[in-house]
Amino acid sequence: MDFEEEEEETQPPQVIDMTTSEKVVDLLNQAALIPTDEKLAVLKQVQELIINKDPSLLDNFLDEMIAFQTDKSIEVRKFVIGFIEEACKRDNELLLRLIANLNMLLRDESVNVVKKAILTLTQLYKVTLQWLVRSKAVSDMQEACWDMVTQMKGDVLALLDSENDGVRTHAIKFTESLIITLSPRTSDSDVPKRQEGDISLDKVPKDHLYIRYDTLCEEGKTALEKLLKFMVHPAISSINLTTALGSLATIARQRPMFMSEVVQAYETLHANLPPTLAKSQVSSVRKNLKLHLVAVLKHPCSLEFQGQISTLLLDLGMPQSEITRSTPAPREQRKRPRHEPYTEGKKIKIEPALIEDDEDKEEPAPITAPKPPAAPVAQSAIDLTAEFLHPLLTSENVANLVLISMVYLPDVMPASFQATYTPVESAGTDAQIKHLARLMATQMTAAGIGPGLEQCKAREDEAGKEDGTGEDSGGKDLLIKRKLPAVMVGQAISVVGGYAEKPTTDAPAAAVKRLPEPILPSAQTKIAGASGRKKVFRLADVIQPLSDTQTENLTSKAVNRILHSEKAIAQSGMSHVRVKLLSRLVTQFEGMMKGDVLEFILDDIRTRSDLAFSLLYQEYNTYLSQLPAGLLDSYDHCLYTLLSGLQEKPEQRDGLFTKLVLEAPIITESALDVIRRYCEDESRVYLGMTTLKELIIKRPSRQFQYLHVLLDLSSHEKEKVRTTALAFLKRMYEKDQLRDYIEKFALNYMQLLVHPNPPSLLFGADKDTEVAAPWTEETVRQCLFLYLSLLPLNHRLVHELASVYTEAIADIKRSVLRAIEQPIRGMGMNSPELLLLVENCPKGAETLVTRCLHILTDKVPPSPELVERVRDLYHKRVPDVRFLIPVINGLEKNEVIQALPKLIKLNPIVVKEVFNRLLGTQHGEGASSVSPLTPGDLLIALHNIDSTKCDMKSIIKATNLCFGEKNVYTSEVLAVVMQQLMEQSPLPMLLMRTVIQSLTMYPRLGGFVMNILSRLIVKQVWKYPKVWEGFVKCCQRTKPQSYSVLLQLPPAQLTSVFERCPEMREPLLQHVHSFTPHQQAHIPASIMAVLEANKKPEPKPVEPVPEKEATTEPIPSPPATEARPTSASEPELQVEQSAIIKDEDEPMEPEQPVPGNLEESVNSVLQEDSTREPDTPSPQPEPCDEPMEEFQPEASDHHEPGKDDEAEPTGPEAGSGSEDAE
Amino acid sequence: MPSHPLRVAVVCSSNQNRSMEAHNILSKRGFDVRSFGTGSHVKLPGPAPDKPNVYDFKTTYEQMYNDLVRKDKELYTQNGILHMLDRNKRIKSKPERFQSCKDKFDLVITCEERVYDQVLEDLNSREQETLQPVHVINVDIQDNHEEATLGAFLICELCQCIQHTDDMENEIDELLQEFEDKSNRPFLHTVCFY
């Protein structure tokens, strides 16, 4: 109401015509933007408006209001809590929606908010219970709401153990309220007016669907137990204690059924004030205790407990008169008169704070209490013990007790003692003795000893047995009984010991003897003493958690210290401990520490290798320990860093790298990368690969992985790396278990050659240039390195090459052919596999086979086996004559002669090579092979080639090649050739050409030639037109030597000569005229006639006979005369040589259009050959440049001259001839 | 530091000297402070110890002032009573009785043990409703001007310290212990609930 007025005052003008709803909206809008103080005011207005003025709006604006629960301001949040409370009270239904919000706020970070939430829950717990009990409808929502409230209740009870004093205080008050709510209100209950309508257990129906009467009842009792237990906590703060005392008083008055427990608790507390209280706090607590005791005493139900209460009050210093005044219902007051006499019986402070700790020791008392017969039992336990003690307290006993206790007196008088001490006025009186006995009994009962307690327990046990339901509690007691001794022995020995044990053992006996003096409790003084106030030390109170960064910082500093104390520790001989420590630390804590340590190691790896290894093993260990789920990452990082560090270090000779690799438990991928890099370093390649080899051999489980690296390196671009890798691989290839893998790899790699473009694999992973890069010599070789080095070790592999070769493109083929020389040579021609290859010669691999043959026979004569295969191949499968070339010297003479026509048709260079082979004029000249043909044979064979098989041009060129080899075709050889040719029949067509050529080369053969000519006459040379033509030519050139030959001709033939060469006649005639007459007489007349035919034919015919003689004459001695005429006629011949040669062509080569320039062409051919040889170092590659099939059909006459210089495969007739033709 | 200013009550028996001195200082320091007496009447020294001037709590300071001026201006000027009343009337119009005040406080400071007991009795006799805690602290102060001034400063310091705690309830115990040591006098302290 107040509020509404205020509000109208504060904002009268603008609000007047607004509806409430509009006003609320306006206020809420304001609230969002203004500072906390004003916000609170505004929100309060809203609350007033929607809760009190117009509750119908509550629902509308609920969400907006609740939204403030996340406000930054604590006060606003607290306000929201208050609002929740008010709203829920106004409309219980809202509980369903708001209870969760309250729950949230109950966990707020601010204790003030939490406290407020506890207060509100205290109220709402009752509200909720009431509402739910009344509500008829059953809904899940409600049940859930109740569950949440119940859970929150539990949470708050748990807050009794909160760290925060204020929170505990609030929790106590909540507990108080809870106990009252969860216990039945009875007729003798004090009911505050305001709470008359409050719910209590008696109003809860026993048949509610989800709210269980029994459960609630039990919860209430549990809460009380909790509270009682809480109160006897030795370290309880004075405020909590005060609060609890007040709560107990409230409980006792509102629920007298618990009065027994409450009074008991007061008694116990009074006797055992917490030792942690300071002096003034003790006073405060005692004052409170007094206040509450009086309050309890005033309740009518305190009757039963008046004795205890008034005793307590007396002890607390309240005058009897006042006590009496506070005591109600005087009727039964004297029920326990025996306490009365102690009115002034302030026997000092007995108040033995006995056992300073532990709630456990308190339990016997409270526990007996809660039972229905609790109060009487508890009383009687103390009473019984008191009665038992009373007669024992003789002066002597008491004196003894005092003396014994003296030992345990503390040095300083405890605050609580000092505060409460009053001199004993009535010492020695019976009343005082009784009081003393009772004080002692209280202590003993509290400590769980004494006859009274035992009796009670015995009784209770019996009751438990009789009562079916009592089992539970009986069990409980047993449990506690068992627990007690342990606690007592463990904790109380020094403290209680003297006191507690005496009465049980000695006291009964001893006490009989002497009368008691008041016993000074020894133990408690010691504890409560010392300083006025003492707090139990709790570590949690004085420490604060470090922030993450602080922790990290400290950790890394600590590790660094260990790290850098290397020398100091080494001197003390504890390095191994340090190493172990470091490695453990580093592996346990992630983060930069590890990096630091690794760096440290790498700074001087040589001396710190033990740390490196230790660290590595530790990492591995960690990995193993986490096994199925563990990751190698950390280990990997460690190993990687170490290896990289070593790899990057400029130099180290001590093999630490190898050692690390070989001793690492696992080589990870990245570590392997480092090893690879290491191997790629040219200066370390050997060491690196040795390491790798060791790995491969010694780590069989992953050897292929390692092997793969080595294999990869075998095609490395750096030659040193590559060759080393290949060398290692070759050695490993001998090991059976690795062999297959290596072989497969090599073959796979070679297999790449069949691709049209080199796969990116060849360029390494980083260069991804799969597209369009053409094969190069380099890339092709890359694919072959490994294979080729394996080939000599395993000849079988050669077949794979052949199959790849057939599929590969021409460029690759060329490269392959170039690459295989070494390995093939290494295999040697006796290799069965190679022979097999030759024998099979897959289609498409002919050039390969040829190349192989060439390589094999380059320096060595072919073996019979090889020759056999080639021959076989040639005859049966691929009739390409070029196969024969390499093995030509291994063939039979007739085979060669057979092949000659084909051979000489080949490219002139090839022909030249063939001739070189045959003539043994190879420039290699390593092991001169024995040719099946002598040079003479060859030349003769050439002459005998059937002109149908080969055109004359090729033959002529071939013979020219022979003539080019002056060293081979010496005059002797030629003489023999001519001799043999001449003896043939019919005469070879080229006979005279050869004769003329021979003569040109060796003019001194002139005599021999004359002899030949003469003999040709005998063979009637004129029958062979071509030869005859040559004959005439020869004669023409060899005049005047030939005159005598001419004269041997029959007249008809001589005529024919003159017809051809009319100019011959006159000189011949002259020649005859120069004869002596005798000689002239020998000239037949017919001859003379021919000679003189034009002028005087008469004198000639005279001497045919001598001519015959003359012709027969020279025959017997051709060799003998050879020299003479030659030497004689040499000068002339030489002079005329060029002319002769020029002329000679005319008849011999009618097809040649320009007969006159043979010399030039011959010379040019020779020149060409001589210049070409250096240019084309080895003729071998050329013929193979193209597959044979391709050029075979081309073997025609027409070739362009330019091509002759090239390696292009050409027809058999290329060369000077065609040049001339142009 | 509590998020709202402490609501403080200073209580002596007559709401004249000790409580008003503290009230004066505390309000100057910006506290939300009120002062009370717990006695059944307001008593001021009279011409003799057994003849005090007794008023009820409805009498304003002004009226008392005038009354005393009228009775013996010189005496009451000399013993400082008039001066005190003059100050009091500038603070508020009339003394208040603690037991009659239903307002709620966070902190109640009493000036002697008897007053403390009365405050406690009163608070405990009230019906609990909100369970809002109120801390009651007794600071013994002799009832004369000098002690009142000293006591007021002590109370003020205490209040300032309490106001500056992060979490008053959690720290007040310790704080009081420190003050006890410092001031060398005991403080009674308890908590009650509204």
Structural class of chain A: mainly alpha
User: Which chain pair has the greatest contact?
Assistant: A-B, 41 and 34 residues
Any idea of the CATH topology of the largest domain in chain B? Rossmann fold
> What form of chain A results from the Cα inertia axes?
rod-shaped
What is the CATH architecture term of the largest domain in chain B? 3-Layer(aba) Sandwich
Counting DSSP H or I runs of 4 or more residues, the number of helices of chain A is 65
Subcellular location (chain B): Nucleus
GO molecular function (chain B): RNA polymerase II CTD heptapeptide repeat phosphatase activity
Family (chain B): Belongs to the SSU72 phosphatase family.
Keywords (chain B): Hydrolase, mRNA processing, Nucleus, Protein phosphatase
How do the strands and helices of this protein lay out in sequence?
The complex is a heterodimer of chains A (1222) and B (194).
Chain A: H1 2-10, H2 12-15, H3 20-33, H4 36-53, H5 58-66, H6 74-90, H7 95-105, H8 111-134, H9 140-158, H10 165-181, H11 213-231, H12 238-254, H13 259-271, H14 279-298, H15 306-315, H16 320-326, H17 364-368, H18 374-389, H19 395-406, H20 415-420, H21 430-447, H22 451-466, H23 470-492, H24 497-513, H25 522-528, H26 539-542, H27 548-564, H28 566-572, H29 575-588, H30 592-603, H31 609-625, H32 633-648, H33 656-663, H34 669-680, H35 685-698, H36 703-713, H37 719-733, H38 736-751, H39 777-790, H40 798-807, H41 810-819, H42 821-827, H43 832-840, H44 846-857, H45 864-877, H46 893-903, H47 908-919, H48 935-943, H49 952-964, H50 971-983, H51 991-1001, H52 1006-1018, H53 1025-1038, H54 1043-1048, H55 1051-1060, H56 1062-1074, H57 1077-1082, H58 1085-1091, H59 1104-1112, H60 1118-1148, H61 1158-1175, H62 1181-1184, H63 1188-1191, H64 1201-1204, H65 1216-1221
Chain B: E1 7-12, H1 18-28, E2 32-37, E3 42-44, E4 53-55, H2 61-78, H3 81-91, E5 107-110, H4 113-125, E6 133-139, H5 145-164, H6 168-183, E7 187-193
Parallel strand pairs in B: 1-2, 1-5, 5-6
Antiparallel strand pairs in B: 3-4, 6-7
Helix pairs in contact in B: 1-5, 2-3, 5-6
